Amino acid sequence: MIREGSLVRRTAVWILLAAGGLIMVTPFAWLVRSAFMDDNQIFVSPPQWIPRPFAWANFSGALSSQPFARYFLNTMIIEVLVVTGTVLTCALAAFSFSRLRWRGRNLIFGLLLTGVMLPYAVTLIPTFVMWGSVGALDTFIPLTVPAWFAGAGGGVFNIFLFRQFFLTIPYELDEAAYIDGATPWKVFWAVIMPLSKPVVVVVVIFTFIGVWNDFLGPLLYLTSDSKFTLALGLAGFQSTYTAQWGFLMAASLVVILPIILIFFVLQRYFVEGVTLTGVKG
Amino acid sequence: MRAERRWGWLLAAPAILGFLIFTIGPMIASLFFSLTDWQIGAPARFIGLGNYHQLAHDPLFWKSLNVTTYYTLGVVPLTLLVGFVVAMLVNQGVRGRGLWRTIYYLPTLVPAVASSVLWIWIFNPDFGLLNSMLRQAGLPTSSWIYGEQSAVPSLILMSTWGFGNAMVIFLAGLQGVPRQLYEAVAIDGGGTWARFRHVTLPFMTPTIFYNLVTGTIGTFQVFNQAYIMTQGGPNNATEFYIYYLYTKAFTDSEIGYASALAWVLFVIVLVITVLLFRNARRWVYYEMGAAR
């Protein structure tokens, strides 16, 4: 961090950051104030920023007009299945690619990495046809099963993250365990994983957010209302209540809030995550 | 050693199988589909390059390509530039560094559906935030996403709000710039500009390049805004490529034609990536030893 520089310069930088920050926060402020306003106040011009009174009814109204609790439950079921599958299979593959020696290992890892560049649209249609032909449409299967095969697509990136981390753990630990008669599975589970909490947390966070925000997947595969996720439910809500801005903003806020809370609690790991990706080189 | 090989394959098996089932397989299938005339429910008929031929004469295909390129050429330079400038500012050792980082990063966390709903309201011509503010300032208002000319610029504006991802990666890159070089420049009598031009910028080129490649590929595949906010309109002004592909495949059930669209996209993305990497040799600086 550069501490030199005059007071004037630092003040100037601070003012610039504050002005930019104000612009960034304004849409959020607009969201929150609209979520708490009734129709009498929301359309007043020039716009007001303080709800008077606070219209809590928007929340109860929005949340009871659609089965948002059901959507939340659906989302969480998918979350648990996807996050567990991704962490387990990606970490296993990374363990194999970084700490076990077998012929063709680097070639295969390199091949997998090319998948990162692939536009998702290329695999979209055949994958859909495939799930259709095994009768898995309108179930959680197409949204969760790929995660148990190292995520597929974006999963490669997680393998890369795990591998980068595993490469920093001393190999003597593995050798000592093997001398004691441990199997590779045992080394993975009892030696490597307990030392890898930082990278596990990073992958869990990114995967969780990815599932929470995913729209196209649920849109393609889920058709009955009782199976909708929050993102899909919100989109449906939006097309039904086009002019009910108070309702819409309240529902949006409910979908956004958990992610922001998670971010605030786990902020430190986000930064580590970006550093871990090793963007240099 | 034999056992180690067996374990190696076994533990990597889910990843390898996943790659075969969910990447390689569908890719090949997609290529086959693209050579057929196939509507869902009817048998597929092999028509060779017919779809590709039809594509070349499809005005909506060219329109979607145009619109998507326009959008990408707007979003990528803007997010990179704003992200870089803000990262430099946050890195100046001002008070509340963590707070600034959080504020600027927050929009990238908002689910696309939620941010789309929010921005529809912000763009609302009658009661939305932007026009309200313009009216208050006595400036002419805009029809934003509801105007044919202003729809794509509006979406570019909205996407630039999410520059936080590029910024955080720039911030991580800035930590890798060696401090002693700044001192070397100072000894040679160089000022702020010399420090930036001869130290910061060269050391940041790999990070800029990373953001450029991932940003371009990601932006080119924009879908959610077109689906939720504009439905490709008005008058196809936001008929983004993936949105067109989606309607062809899942609304019109033209699986063959949509697969041809997908393969053309694949080739486009491949060409862009290769060109970017080729061009990178001329301006991306890698430290000795760090280059592979």
Layout of helices and strands:
The complex is a heterodimer of chains A (281) and B (292).
Chain A: H1 7-35, H2 39-42, H3 57-65, H4 68-99, H5 105-114, H6 120-133, H7 141-144, H8 155-166, H9 172-179, H10 184-195, H11 197-213, H12 216-221, H13 230-240, H14 245-265, H15 267-276
Helix pairs in contact in A: 1-14, 3-14, 4-8, 4-11, 4-13, 9-10, 11-15, 13-14
Chain B: H1 2-33, E1 36-37, E2 45-46, H2 50-56, H3 59-90, H4 97-105, H5 112-123, H6 129-136, H7 151-160, H8 164-174, H9 179-187, H10 192-220, H11 224-230, H12 241-251, H13 255-283
Antiparallel strand pairs in B: 1-2
Helix pairs in contact in B: 1-13, 3-7, 3-8, 3-10, 5-11, 8-10, 9-10, 10-13, 12-13
Give an account of the 3D structure:
The complex is a heterodimer of chains A (281) and B (292). Chain A is mostly helical. Chain A has 15 helices and no strands. Chain A folds into two domains: 7-55, no CATH class; 66-276, MetI-like fold. In chain A, 71% of the residues lie in helices and 0% in strands. Chain A is globular, with a radius of gyration of 24 Å. The two termini of chain A are 22 Å apart. The relative contact order of chain B is 0.13. In chain B, strand 1 (36-37) and strand 2 (45-46) form a beta hairpin. Classes of the chains: A mainly alpha (281), B mainly alpha (292). Chains A and B meet through helix 1, helix 4, helix 5, helix 6 and helix 8 of A and helix 1, helix 3, helix 4, helix 5 and helix 6 of B. Chain B: Residues 65-276 form the ABC transmembrane type-1 domain. Chain B: It is found in: Cell membrane. Chain B: This is Carbohydrate ABC transporter membrane protein 1 (CUT1 family).
